[in-house]
Structures are given as C-alpha cells and as structure tokens.
C-alpha cells in the first residue's frame, strides 16, 4: 500500500453487497478490506447504498436552500448562542479553520508543493458559511460523565418551513446515520477486528446532522474559501451530494489536491476523522479537506441560473458527523498499532513522509474532545459550553 500510485478518483464501496451477505463470503470480506484500505490510503471513500434516495437528498437540499435564503433577521431567531450554538443555526463568519493557528497542520501545508496547497488560510479569517445543527443522538441508559445541555432541537417557525422541517431532517439524517454505521462495521471487519467494534463504541455518540450553506451571490467569486483547510474531530463524516462542486481532499502521502466527485444516484461521501485516527493508532489518518469556489463551481452556478432562475444560489453541504460515545475509553487497538507502525516503516523506506509520529494516549472520548478544543475553543463549532468539561468543537 505504501508505494502504489493512487488514482485521483476515490474508491467506491458497495454497501449493498455487504448488507446482502452472507457475512463470511469472500465477496463481502473483500469489499470490507477494500473499505478499510480506502480510508488508510485516501482518508475518504464513496459509499454506494441503494437505501439512500436521490429524491430525499433533493428534498433536503431544497429545504436547506429555502431556509438559508431567509433574511438574516429570521435566521437569527434560530440562533442559540447561550447554548454555544449546540443546536440551531450558526451564521456566517463565525467558524474559523483551526489549521490557521495549528503548527502541525501548518507543517503539512508547508510540505506540499506550492501548486498543490490549499487556498491560503493564514489570515485566520472566519469561514463565510452558515451551519445548522440537528441532533441525531440516542440518550444513553447510564449517567454520562460528559452531560450535554440536552437542549431540544430548533424548528424554524416560518409557515413555509415548519411543517416540512422535522420530517425532512429526520428522514435524511437517519439515511446517512444508517449508512455510516453500517460502513463502520465494514471497516472494522476489513481491519481484522470484530465487526461490531466501532458501532458499539458509537451507539450513544453525540451524532449531528450539520448542513452548511454558502451564499454564492455574496461569496461566488473564484478562489473564495467557503471552508478552510481542516480535518474533522469526530469518527466518520458522511455527506450527501452537493449541487455545487468545490470540495478538495488530500489523500495520505500523495501531496495531491483531489477534487471530489460524488456520482449521481445512491452515493455518499465518507471521510475519516480524528477519533478514527486515534483508535487505529494512526493506521487511518483523519483526512484534510477544504471547500472553495473553483472553475467547476462557477460553471454550475451559470447553469443553474438558466435552468432554475427562481431557486436560491446557495451551496448546501449535507454533512453528518458520526461520533464515538463521550464515555467510551479511546484506546488504540494493539493489533492496529502494529499495522500502523508497519505502514509507517514502509513509507519511510519508500522515501515518503508520514508526518510527525504521534503518541495516541488512552483517554475518554470526552477528554479527547476537550483536549482538542481547550486552547482553540473559539475557532471551531462549539456544541457545548466553551471551557466546560464536555466542550465540543468540530473543525
């Protein structure tokens, strides 16, 4: 795996094959291994799931466009700053990319060829995107050491939205949640550990449907950064297909910026996050990515102006963050640590850098989150009180 040339297209993983079984068949085990290797090599993959409806995605994108097209005075009614934005809307120019002030991240950028680097985030400007948080978590049957605020989800009160909102959010959120949990089983099997390992660890995770919105009338100029270079804090991030291109990822060790293309139909994008990196001892690395306005974005803007002149020009990303449970003991799995070391050694022999060696200390997931945010709490998406033991920022 260390020396092969990587395609610029992300591997496509067939979840239907896995669900159809039988679970111990050669075909299923091969697809599981393919899923694990895709995350090791790319930090991302395309997931094909026939249960995911293109119509549901369209309905969701329409709802989000209608919502974020409202005047800011209406959007502000759904802000909950007193809850540190753990539910409801976060308006534009609030979130900042942590990489702009994170030395290891800056070293990764410096190590890239100038032509392959992300757009410059050194000014540490806030991202011009909005976000909405809709909780998709299950209340644990035990007393958690990391109690959230338990605030209810926010439902917009516009007559045009409030009837559609809960049904649409739950339907699309459940589709992505089911898909990513099933993929977690595949990845575990592909890594050679029990299939339920990750699903069990994330059963009571603080999962979030977290769509983002970028106003392409205001921010539709080429090379505008909509979401600055970063990796995600959670375990796995899954996305529905956006109507507008602009997402770039950097596969491990390639040094290449890869434009992401999610094929039409029953397909989703999945990216590895920091919790998955930690539990695998660095065998899988959290994937770096950015969202920008590029030539392809501009082409789609022009086409949609003609084809849908009455629709808002707003880029929606239907993001879902899947987390491990806050009380879970986040300890690197010994067998995966050995694989991570072997892969790192192979990279060194091939003359490739794998970044600085990281010691993944055992800790509760809640402590991992707090440690990540303790000095940069203002720079992420805060979904619990900043500075509190259960603080959670997502970058």
TrEMBL record:
UniProt keywords, alphabetically: Iron, Metal-binding, Oxidoreductase
Q: Where is the Isopenicillin N synthase-like Fe(2+) 2OG dioxygenase domain?
A: 226-323
**Which GO MF terms are attached to this record?**
metal ion binding; oxidoreductase activity
Entry-linked InterPro entries: IPNS-like_FE2OG_OXY, IPNS-like_sf
The record, for Gene3D superfamilies, names: B-lactam Antibiotic, Isopenicillin N Synthase, Chain
Q: Which residues form a coiled coil?
A: none
* Family per record: Belongs to the iron/ascorbate-dependent oxidoreductase family.
* PANTHER family, per database record: 2-OXOGLUTARATE (2OG) AND FE(II)-DEPENDENT OXYGENASE SUPERFAMILY PROTEIN, OXIDOREDUCTASE, 2OG-FE II OXYGENASE FAMILY PROTEIN
Name used for this protein in its record = Isopenicillin N synthase-like Fe(2+) 2OG dioxygenase domain-containing protein
- From which lineage does this chain's organism come? Eukaryota, Fungi, Dikarya, Basidiomycota, Agaricomycotina
């Amino acid at each position: 795996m260390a020396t092969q040339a990587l395609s610029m297209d992300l591997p496509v993983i067939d979840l239907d094959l896995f669900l159809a079984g039988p679970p111990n068949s050669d075909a299923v085990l091969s697809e599981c291994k393919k899923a694990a290797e895709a995350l090791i090599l790319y930090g991302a993959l395309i997931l094909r799931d026939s249960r995911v409806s293109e119509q549901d995605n369209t309905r969701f994108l329409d709802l989000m466009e209608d919502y974020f097209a409202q005047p800011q005075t209406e959007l502000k009614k759904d802000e909950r700053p007193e809850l540190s934005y753990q539910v409801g809307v976060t308006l534009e120019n609030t979130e900042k990319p942590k990489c702009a002030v994170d030395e290891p991240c800056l070293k990764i950028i410096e190590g890239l060829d100038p032509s392959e680097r992300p757009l410059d985030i050194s000014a540490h400007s806030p991202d011009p995107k909005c976000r909405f948080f809709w909780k998709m978590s299950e209340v644990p049957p035990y007393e958690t050491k990391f109690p959230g605020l338990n605030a209810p989800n926010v439902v917009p009160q516009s007559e045009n939205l409030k009837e559609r909102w809960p049904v649409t959010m739950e339907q699309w959120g459940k589709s992505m949640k089911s898909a990513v949990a099933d993929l977690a089983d595949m990845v575990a099997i592909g890594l050679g550990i029990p299939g339920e390992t990750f699903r069990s660890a994330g059963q009571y995770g603080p999962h979030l449907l977290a769509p983002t919105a970028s106003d392409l009338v205001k921010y539709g100029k080429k090379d505008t950064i909509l979401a600055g270079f970063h990796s995600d804090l959670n375990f796995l991030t899954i996305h529905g297909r956006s109507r507008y291109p602009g997402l770039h990822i950097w596969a491990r060790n390639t040094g290449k910026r890869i434009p992401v293309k999610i094929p039409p139909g029953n397909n989703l994008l999945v990216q590895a996050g920091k919790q998955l990196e930690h539990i695998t001892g660095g065998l899988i690395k959290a994937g770096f990515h950015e969202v920008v306005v590029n030539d392809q974005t501009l082409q789609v803007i022009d086409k949609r102006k003609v084809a849908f002149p009455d629709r808002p020009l707003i880029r929606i990303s239907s993001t879902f963050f899947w987390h491990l449970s806050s009380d879970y003991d986040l300890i690197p799995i010994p067998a995966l640590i050995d694989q991570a070391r072997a892969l790192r050694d192979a990279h060194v022999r091939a003359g490739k850098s794998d970044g600085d060696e990281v010691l993944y200390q055992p800790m509760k997931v809640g402590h991992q989150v707090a440690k990540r945010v303790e000095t940069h709490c203002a720079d992420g998406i805060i979904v619990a009180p900043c500075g509190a033991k259960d603080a959670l920022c997502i970058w």
